[in-house]
Amino acid sequence: MKENSKPWSLLISVYTTQYIGIAFMISAAFAILRQSGIALDKLALINLIALPMLGKVLYAPFIDSFRLFFQGQYRSWLIVAQLCMTILLFICGLLDIQQHFSAILILFIVYTLFMSMQDVAIDGLACKIFKATERQFANSIQYSSNLMGNIIGGGLLLILYPWLHWKGALWILAGMTALTNIQLFFYKEPDDAWVNPHKGISGQFKSLAQQIKLFIQQHKVWFALLFVYPIGFTAVFGILNPLLVDAKWSLADIGFATKVFGSIVGIFSAFLATFLINKLHRKAALISLTLLQSVALLLFIPLTLGYTDKPLVYLAIFGYFLANPGLMAALSTLIMDRASTMPAKATFFSLQLSLIVFMGFSYSAIGLAFAQHIGYTAVVLITFMCALCVAGLTWKLLPTTYQ
């Protein structure tokens, strides 16, 4: 591959395989393990596999600072991470899920650790190789590919599971992950005059802390926006599953609606961000998608009032996924703009995105807690007003440089 060519097919492959495994573990494995007779208290332990995903900002300095024995700063980490992910999926397929549940759980946690490293490395590579005019398309590719992985791992493999069984499903995941290794083998990362951005091992974390402090001070308004942004799209979707369970929807119907149908709509939405950024530029596109997301929240009100017929539920899911992946792609484009100016690109991309992820989990939990006391409808209305406020704050506070 020519050094000045952009590895779009590699980007699609990496971001897709990034989510097929985790989607299978979190979504499909719950149903499969329950059918296998695993007790609910054991089943709850599967949530532990998400823990390594919360530590991306801790892995990022090592990925920025140390080059492994393969060519390319980020390519070297990608090769090792993808190879380990492939091996772990293959080993899990060899084990019996009922007899070796604890061992499989540990292997899943280790798998998520390498998947998180892979995520940091591909984000760092994207920050490095894509120009400002290409970043919106790169982030659209990221979120649409993640959703494709969600469809395959969380939807299609569950549908095919009666024929594939545990070993077949895991080995298909391993095979798809291995295909990305082949693409990485033929890819040559542009080699700049690389220096350790953290100035050696002994002063690594001291240097990093100083850089982070200066970076946050420089972009303090942006970090304030990132802190509040997830409130407009996490709290409401977090109540959808329990709301549908309360309405006596089957788990299969819930899974298809949210994982397959929603993800298909989301793939198109991710590219909506590229279209809007090209037409309206970054700031206006972000505000437009935020307003679209806030209007989509109103589609959940009939559901909270007990009208949970399939057309209304699918309309609400359509509206949510029409806006959300595009909104995330637009946010990630602005995150990439800032990270690309730093020597430790993966670290500063992960620093910003981790704040969105952490606050998203927090607002989702708060939304569920509030729903218990004030009802689903009140949570939707409060979130709608918060989303409008976030759009207003973005218009007022985001620098005009990003218009």
Give a brief rundown of this model.
The protein has helices spanning 8-35, 40-43, 56-65, 73-94, 101-129, 135-186, 204-218, 220-228, 235-238, 240-246, 251-280, 282-297, 301-304, 310-339, 345-374, 376-397. It folds into two domains: 1-189, Up-down Bundle (Growth Hormone, Chain: A), CATH 1.20.1250.20; 200-403, Growth Hormone, Chain: A (Up-down Bundle).
What do these coordinates show?
With 403 residues, this protein is mostly helical. It folds into two domains: 1-189, Up-down Bundle (Growth Hormone, Chain: A); 200-403, Growth Hormone, Chain: A, CATH 1.20.1250. It has 16 helices and no strands. It has helices at residues 8-35, 40-43, 56-65, 73-94, 101-129, 135-186, 204-218, 220-228, 235-238, 240-246, 251-280, 282-297, 301-304, 310-339, 345-374, 376-397. Helix 4 (73-94) runs antiparallel to helix 5, helix 6 packs across helix 11 (251-280) and helix 11 (251-280) runs antiparallel to helix 12 (282-297). The protein starts with 7 loop residues before the first helix and ends in a 6-residue tail after the last helix. The model has no long low-confidence stretch (mean pLDDT 84).
The beta-strand count equals: 0
Q: Report the CATH superfamily of the largest domain.
A: MFS general substrate transporter like domains
Which percent range fits the helix content?
Answer: over 70%
Q: If classified by CATH, what would the architecture of the largest domain be?
A: Up-down Bundle
Radius of gyration computed on alpha carbons: 21 Å
Shape: globular
The secondary-structure element order is HHHHHHHHHHHHHHHH
Unreliably modeled segments = none
Q: Biggest β-sheet: count, sense, barrel?
A: none
CATH level-3 fold name of the largest domain? Growth Hormone, Chain: A
**Gap between N and C termini, in Å?**
35 Å
